[in-house]
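Task: sequence design from structure.
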């Protein structure tokens, strides 16, 4: 059996500073990392349909020896339902491969209340199942003497449940939110997410919840506990949750451009939201990632592309040829090295890339 290569420098270590450019990896990421902690919405599927090519890429990653864990901020569905959906899409997944923000939230609550305590659920089945898993009793009324409140996205949450949550939170009970995502992707576009529902209760009570999901660390910790990962790679489509969460947890990350984040948003990423690697889709797990190096006084080269940013205006330019991914990696380096106070523009440079 071939020896497993050592991870790239810094893999799995807590980052000390944001990357000046996407990091190179001389091997496929499947060889450098033992577990992929994969976001779902916008990475593997959007609504009921698989992202094109995602099932095949994940099958190849698994065949190469990488373990897959499916880590989602969405607390609406329990793992058994999520895993069944993945299998319907052609992605082999056991129920135990799925880790949800509901599970992370339940663990947070369990650390603050007695075993068997009642917990008011402002959410749905995903939270109900997760609470029972840790020995707590879900209730849906503030009159049931709950010891804590847990809130997570579910499409059926409405005024009645928000009112019950508000009444209980006003009593000073521990309050845990599965996540604060302002939007949730659907087949028809972005829809209001749990963060907006949490904001209703926060506005009505003057309190803020503890948060379990990305970008906070509890969901990452839950995934690590359940998978036993030693060299995890976080894979996601959102800068403010997936990538920021990976950086907070000291993990490397791969951003794929099949969901929320587009190239202009990536170029404008703040240091706390910059990914370790960038790829168009999940096939980025299966290939080495090229080096991005300085080229001249203000330029950055990735293979046959050279990107630079004007030191006066921040305007980005791109010259060369090759894959769009390599051109985008060069542009990332140029944009991230630019004075953050400069406005910068990228439309003209990005127009040279064909996705």
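Answer:
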């Amino acid at each position: 059996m071939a020896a497993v290569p050592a991870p790239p420098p810094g893999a799995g270590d807590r980052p000390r500073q944001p990357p000046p450019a996407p990091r190179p990896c001389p091997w496929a990421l499947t060889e450098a990392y033992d577990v992929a902690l994969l976001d779902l919405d916008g990475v593997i599927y959007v609504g009921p349909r698989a992202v094109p090519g995602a099932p095949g890429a994940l099958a190849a990653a698994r065949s190469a020896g990488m373990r897959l864990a499916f880590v989602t901020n969405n607390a609406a569905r329990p793992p058994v339902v999520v895993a069944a959906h993945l299998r319907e899409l052609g992605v082999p997944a056991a129920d135990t491969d799925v880790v949800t923000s509901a599970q992370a939230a339940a663990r947070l609550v369990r650390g603050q209340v007695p075993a068997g305590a009642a917990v008011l659920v402002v959410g749905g089945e995903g939270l109900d199942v997760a609470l029972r898993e840790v020995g707590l009793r879900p209730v849906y009324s503030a009159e049931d003497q709950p010891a804590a409140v847990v809130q997570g996205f579910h499409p059926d949450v409405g005024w009645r449940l928000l009112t019950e949550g508000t009444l209980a939170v006003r009593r000073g009970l521990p309050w845990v939110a599965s996540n604060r995502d302002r939007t949730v992707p659907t087949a028809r576009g972005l829809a209001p997410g749990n963060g907006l529902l949490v904001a209703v209760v926060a506005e009505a009570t003057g309190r803020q919840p503890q948060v379990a999901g990305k970008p906070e660390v509890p969901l990452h910790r839950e995934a690590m506990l359940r998978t036993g990962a030693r060299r995890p790679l976080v894979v996601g489509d959102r800068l403010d949750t997936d990538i920021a969460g990976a950086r907070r947890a000291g993990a490397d990350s791969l951003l794929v451009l099949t969901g929320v984040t587009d190239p202009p948003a990536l170029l404008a990423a703040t240091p706390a939201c910059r990914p370790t690697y960038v790829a168009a889709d999940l096939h980025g797990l299966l290939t080495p990632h090229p080096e991005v190096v300085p080229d001249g006084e203000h330029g950055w080269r990735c293979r046959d592309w050279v990107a630079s940013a004007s030191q006066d205006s921040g305007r980005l330019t791109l010259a060369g040829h090759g894959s769009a991914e390599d051109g985008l990696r060069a542009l990332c380096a140029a944009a991230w090295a630019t004075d953050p106070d400069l406005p910068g523009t990228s439309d003209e440079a990005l127009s040279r890339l064909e996705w």
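Residues 29-73+216-285 form a domain with the Rossmann fold fold (CATH 3.40.50.1000).
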